[in-house]
Amino acid sequence: MGTVERLRGSVHTREDLWRRGIGPTRLEAKLREGALNRLRTGAYVSTQLLSSVRHESRLLLEAIGYQKVAARELIFLRRTAAVLHGLQLGRVPDDVEIAAAGRCGSEAAGVRSREISPASRQRAVVRSGAQVTGLVDTLVDCARFTVPEEALPIIENALHRERTGQIDDDDAEGLRPRLDRALRACTGRGSRRAKNIAEVMSPFCESIGESRCLMLFRLHGLPTPTQQLAIGPYRVDFAWPQQRVIVEFDGMVKYGDTRTSGGIFLAEKRREAWLQSQGWTVLRLTWDMLSRPWEIVDRLARVGVLPRP
């Protein structure tokens, strides 16, 4: 059973609880005691589960809760749709995003109702037991209506998953050419953002942190590095072969990496020592350092990677 199915089975409506012998009085008692938590009116989850999940899983619980009690059929979109498509987010939004029922949809607490084009509505698909905008529509919406530092990692996660055969996309043409076309064809609000993302998106970022690093290099005019370059037995995140400089992002976990942190640390130390023995300079970046981009640009300049004139 997948993550979404487990979470779906953990969200209970009043009717579900009633069938389990938990009527209104017992329900209120469990809420007071802290055994249950109200996701929204009519949808409940155990407090233990809610406190144990993070990031995308928490957004999934919110979406499932709203879906179970909604009075109409829903289409999830933007970042909520991205999570239901199985993608990772750099920052999880506070609200579930759904397609408006009409021109001006009403909103419940924790829910944002967004306009959707008739074409996107028609192309909606079922993923993880919920109706969502199609994958290309979802990514285009993220590009148009989400700030680039949040949108680009979502898009690059999708491209990485396609490259590694993990994406649920049965179109023979492939995701990248269709997405590129759709981004460049955007008009109206957010179209400039979409076109900019089409210019820079890469299928070779293997973590959200790598996407953020690549964006930083671009924004500060640095030469485009080679990604996932094979050097001996290793692949490195970013390399400038002419300067023999490597940048590795120390986010500890790439997409799908299940090793322990201790095992990763020891492997990375051995890897770095070998690369240095071959004449490469290795710089490591962390999440904290990404908030001080000028320091990164300065460190790269000191080893010969200079912004383009």
UniProtKB/TrEMBL annotation:
InterPro entries: DUF559, Restrct_endonuc-II-like. SUPFAM superfamilies: Restriction endonuclease-like (SSF52980). It holds the Pfam family DUF559. Residues 227-291 form the DUF559 domain. It comes from the Bacteria. This is DUF559 domain-containing protein. It comes from Rothia kristinae.
